[in-house]
Automatic annotation (TrEMBL):
Predicted to be exported by the Tat system. The position of the signal peptide cleavage has not been experimentally proven. Transmembrane segments: none annotated. It is an enzyme of class 1 (oxidoreductase). This is Protein-methionine-sulfoxide reductase catalytic subunit MsrP. The keyword Transmembrane helix does not apply. Its cofactor is Mo-molybdopterin. It comes from Candidatus Korobacter versatilis. Belongs to the MsrP family. It catalyses: L-methionyl-[protein] + a quinone + H2O = L-methionyl-(S)-S-oxide-[protein] + a quinol; L-methionyl-[protein] + a quinone + H2O = L-methionyl-(R)-S-oxide-[protein] + a quinol. Mo-molybdopterin binds at residues 84, 87-88, 142, 177, 225, 230, 241-243. Part of the MsrPQ system that repairs oxidized cell envelope proteins containing methionine sulfoxide residues (Met-O), using respiratory chain electrons. Thus protects these proteins from oxidative-stress damage caused by reactive species of oxygen and chlorine. MsrPQ is essential for the maintenance of envelope integrity under bleach stress, rescuing a wide series of structurally unrelated cell envelope proteins from methionine oxidation. The catalytic subunit MsrP is non-stereospecific, being able to reduce both (R-) and (S-) diastereoisomers of methionine sulfoxide. Residues 104-259 form the Oxidoreductase molybdopterin-binding domain. InterPro entries: MsrP (IPR022867), OxRdtase_Mopterin-bd_dom (IPR000572), OxRdtase_Mopterin-bd_sf (IPR036374), TAT_signal (IPR006311), TAT_signal_bac_arc (IPR019546). The gene is msrP.
Length: 321
């Protein structure tokens, strides 16, 4: 029984990164259950050609967008894919890497609803090809006080929004994560309101930095990082960047967002990184980069003030946290 889990994964859904995690898990399990012979067996399976073919298929074509990238050194793939927040797969940082193999990322569709000329549905492979993929090395700042640097692959959300043809009534866009407790066991708990929802004001969503993200380190996203498609909003706290999105809803009024529903005095709609506004229970002045021990000063808008500050001119960022 112990070895059933990895065998359940259809091979078509194994990405190299998630395979790294699930194979590693398999090897540990196998070593315990069956002894060293099983490990040797698994090693042989790893070198078989079908998996090599899948690894090639998971690679994405892209060009580096240097203008929108930081020159800071990215965290390793291991750091980025084993230290995660994805409450659908548990609340510990190590839980998503252990459990997100349960997510089936194909077939997958993304639907467009609300204030648009015509509602429509995109297949994930069609969506991935809507615009050329760019690699952008972005800083990521979690509201909990840690940060990383990540080489994402995607294109500006604005490319997609233009295709959606929102009406003049569309003032905000909400993005909605998959809801399926069988694939997302965390949804059987009440730790958050499900599905996970987030959103942006339309001008924020149209900003070139707002990334519709399909990959990491040159390959499709590991499940635990929000496969097959997620948002990346580098000037905002990480919780704005919803994962495993199935729906975009264009709306007239500011949409509800998950962490704001959960704790409104702690998590606002804007969630812009702001060292001058403390979280009610802790300071936001400094952060620890994963892999480092010293604390760094947190920068206004996570270092993207030059690009995004004008979106908020005239707004009280203490009231609009
Ligand atoms: N659906 C969903 N999206 C989510 C979360 C989540 O729990 N569920 N966590 C958020 C938080 S708090 C952070 S910091 C980032 C983490 O993304 P990463 O694991 O790729 O670093 O995802 C965000 N998106
Ligand atoms: Mo976060």
């Amino acid at each position: 029984m112990l070895i059933k889990k990895p065998a359940d994964i259809p091979s078509s859904e194994i990405t190299p990164q998630s395979a790294y995690v699930s194979r590693r898990k398999f090897m540990v399990t196998a070593a315990v259950a069956l002894g060293a012979a099983a490990v040797a067996c698994n090693k042989a399976a790893e070198m078989a050609s079908p998996q090599k073919a899948e690894a090639a298929a998971a690679k994405l074509q892209f060009t580096r967008n240097s203008a929108l990238s930081t020159s800071e050194k990215p965290n390793s793939l291991k750091e980025i894919s084993t230290y995660n927040n994805f409450y659908e797969y548990g609340t510990d940082k190590s839980d998503p890497a252990e459990n997100a193999w349960k997510l089936r990322t194909r077939p997958w569709t993304v639907s467009i609803e609300g204030e648009v000329k015509k509602p429509k549905t995109y297949d994930i492979d069609q969506l991935t090809k809507l615009a050329p993929l760019e690699e952008r090395i972005y800083r990521h700042r979690c509201v909990e006080g840690w940060s990383m640097v990540m080489p994402w692959l995607g294109y500006s959300l604005s490319n997609f929004i233009k295709q959606c043809e929102p009406t003049s009534k569309a003032k905000y866009v909400q993005f909605v994560t998959l809801q399926d407790p069988e694939q997302m066991p965390g949804q059987k708990t009440g730790v958050l309101d499900w599905p996970y929802v987030e959103g942006l004001r339309m001008d924020e969503a149209m900003h070139p930095l707002a990334l519709l993200c399909f990959g990491l380190y040159g390959e499709v996203l590991p499940n635990q990082n929000g496969a097959p498609v997620r948002m990346i909003l580098p000037w905002k706290y990480g919780f704005k960047s919803g994962k495993s999105i199935v729906k975009f809803r264009f709306v007239e009024k500011q949409p509800p967002t998950t962490w704001n529903i959960s704790a409104p005095s702690e998590y606002g709609f804007y969630s812009n990184v702001n060292p001058a506004v403390d979280h009610p229970r802790w300071s936001q002045k400094t952060e620890r980069r994963i892999g480092e021990f010293r604390r760094r000063d947190t920068l206004m808008f996570n270092g993207y003030a030059g690009q995004v500050a004008s979106l908020y001119s005239g707004m009280d960022l203490r009231a609009n946290y």
